[in-house]
Target: Enoyl-CoA hydratase family protein
Amino acid sequence: MTLVARSRDRGVETLALDSPATRNALSAALVGELADALTDCGKDGDVRAVVLTHTGTTFCAGADLRDPPAPDALVALLRQIVELRKPVVARVTGHVRAGGLGLLAACDITAASRDATFAFTEVRIGVAPAVISLTVLPRADPRALARYYLTGERFTAAEAARAGLLTTYGDDVDEALAPVLDGLRRSAPQGLAETKALLTARVLEAFDRDAADLTALSARLFATPQAREGMTAFLERRDPVWAL
Model:
């Protein structure tokens, strides 16, 4: 079964996360298939830019707790998006949770519909947004992140834009993206590649400095009793024992 649908229009390759039954959760299989698709885009001289989007009502629900990717595989995927020599544009018409925000922050330009919602839910299952901090922390407002990282509460597209997680949002996300994609199509491939490298240098510094430590932190937290209780409670649709 294909988990990433592909299409192309005038040099823009669209990769759609296509596992709506799991709310496009990041399973080992989905992460691997998306990585392969991005590799293909990187090698294809006819691809000017990539749009990362989704089917169903959720862009990405975070890690698939039944079939999670290895932390280093998720790190590699996020770095691949950042390092790709072509702009990656996120198109969101649904909800984004946990690891999905790491994908969003890895993209160069991000657009969402006005009714999309966002949440860093890791704290609610006893872990931390460790690996995704590699892309989120360099690009978002620290004060906004302190609130949403620590509370796990949902926030709106308007708040995501104020925090630096979204480039734009609106009632019609495709209308908002039309001038962006037109601009990318008019730009030279060499110019896009080198300009993206300038923009992502700070993010890649975070990978070089922190990836190993954050990967180890993620693995350690997921092996704890609190995380097991949090994940079990989530799957059973009940409050964990610590909820007041």
